[in-house]
Protein: Phosphate acyltransferase
Organism: Sulfitobacter noctilucicola
Amino acid sequence: MTAPTDHTDALAPARTKARTLISVDAMGGDKGPAAVVAGCSLSARINPDIAFVLHGDSEQLTPLIAKYAELQGRCDVRHAADVVTMDDKPSQVVRTGKDTSMWSAIESVRTGDAAVAVSCGNTGALMALSMIRLRKLPGVNRPAIAVLYPAATAQGFNVMLDVGADIKADADDLMRFALMGVSYARNGMDIAKPRVGLLNVGTEEHKGRAELKEAYDLIRDHASDAGYAFVGFVEGGDISGDTADVIVTDGFTGNVAIKTGEGTASLIGARLREAFSYSILSRISSVLAYRSLMRLQQKIDPRRVNGGVFLGLNGTVVKSHGSADATGISAAIKLAAQLSANQFNDKLAARVAAALPAEGAAE
Amino acid sequence: MTAPTDHTDALAPARTKARTLISVDAMGGDKGPAAVVAGCSLSARINPDIAFVLHGDSEQLTPLIAKYAELQGRCDVRHAADVVTMDDKPSQVVRTGKDTSMWSAIESVRTGDAAVAVSCGNTGALMALSMIRLRKLPGVNRPAIAVLYPAATAQGFNVMLDVGADIKADADDLMRFALMGVSYARNGMDIAKPRVGLLNVGTEEHKGRAELKEAYDLIRDHASDAGYAFVGFVEGGDISGDTADVIVTDGFTGNVAIKTGEGTASLIGARLREAFSYSILSRISSVLAYRSLMRLQQKIDPRRVNGGVFLGLNGTVVKSHGSADATGISAAIKLAAQLSANQFNDKLAARVAAALPAEGAAE
């Protein structure tokens, strides 16, 4: 339905004009290829504009795909004999992983067949392979993983990055994270002018580590050119609040924060189930409350905001949870399709290059 | 009921033999002295073995105390004309805060009148005043703030430290945090052999920052002597899990983690209320579920695990939330009374000194 533009991409094959092609690593998740194929079928049912190239053992995949009417004619299989396991070391996968489904899935993005790859495999290996095969965008020193975190904002979640691509980040890196997060919020979540906050232990300007004070100034100075609002330092409580749409932090802190939040949510869920099974009266009330509780679960369900995204590379890679089921995979594919349709990575590349000409030249 | 020991303390006044005296800053909280006095009365009702010295404006405090029968004869007032506000800078309070209720509350610990002080005032100022007036224990380079975090453990929560006394910690500091956290878990929570975990972004030994790998070895090597079990690296999800009883981290990461957890819990609570007010059926079910929900709230209520404790000083200071109400204050006082009754700080001092003779001598 979109009007044709002057911007054409000579490398993209003709088929992507009709449908957005998503490259999917079918083998990496804890729940195996059946869950991945089921997730693809969920997405295919909802979104007629996408098609898939599935990477993995064709003998396993072909019968799984045959089960779903909506996948017929929209699902190519690219055979890969090997699988990256959760225990494989990233350095080893980079050296010897050529025959894995993960490698093959990234390869489809590198060659331009697909704009976005989706995998629920080993995060470290996926990041390492993405870095080596797709390479960093000009102007980016450290790529980042961005997640959507449930929040009190209008859109229901915030973007947080980095949550674990690397364990550190200097002031320049944090500044680039802000630019990348803003591009993501704009193209993945339709927020025209995202609010950016820099994670710290207090909101006063004099608090926190030296690199954070430096990053504060850099992020503030780029706000006007890059079209975002800088709200200054934010605290852990603001990650789920309505203070900012984009939370910028280093990968160590971000990783601890999301895992703490997930753990806390899971503890509360367990306690809620205990509370409702305590007595006959509470069990009756839980039956009556069933729909309310399901609505709650949908709002805070981590599977629905599941897509961690690798930013700062020549191509986009969406990381789904290792334990993702069909719903989780489908959410990751939906995100991949939206980013792909918005030509997100081209815009991000242009933004980072424009904001940082000096560093860009040094790459 | 305890047998007399050879260890006597010449500085402790005779009155503490009968009742444990708690020093309370009555003025610092957001809810004013009325909430603090109400919290003292709640504690006094439950625990006949405690008495109070309340610091603050005697004209305000005397009529408030007069309201509660259980506080009569158990509550001395020490007049202090000034109050530390939430906006006061710690450095300024240290220079000019002699007439504040916070200073006066810490002074009662410094002179040995009370073993533990409780305040819900400005954290930065409380930490700075505690450091300057009580001074660090021999062998401690960085004091720490420890909190109780709701968790899936038998006792219902874990100890996490540091959550913001300082923004950094080297390997030696993290090692001391482990020892201090173990003493706290043993004396404040009755865990004979606490399990200690070191917070990181992965549980593999090769992951994370250099100082964490060094701290890993130090904490492992002291486990046997200090009577704890070292479970190795833990992740953010383990803070609320059942992997460890004591979570060791630097003050920056710990502060972000607890605020992220609190924010997430608060978001879930808000969504739960929305879910139950959505339709007539869900409103009826919420009435039936009332007791179940109250039971849940009691288990995860931050007010009940409210007492952050400053560890590593010559005397113990319990920091309650600024927004604590009577229930929150009462929980902080209960913790203070237990630590005081167990002569916690003497044991902690002995433990740190025994484990680190070399560093202790350098202090």
Residues 251-276 of chain B form the longest helix (26 residues).
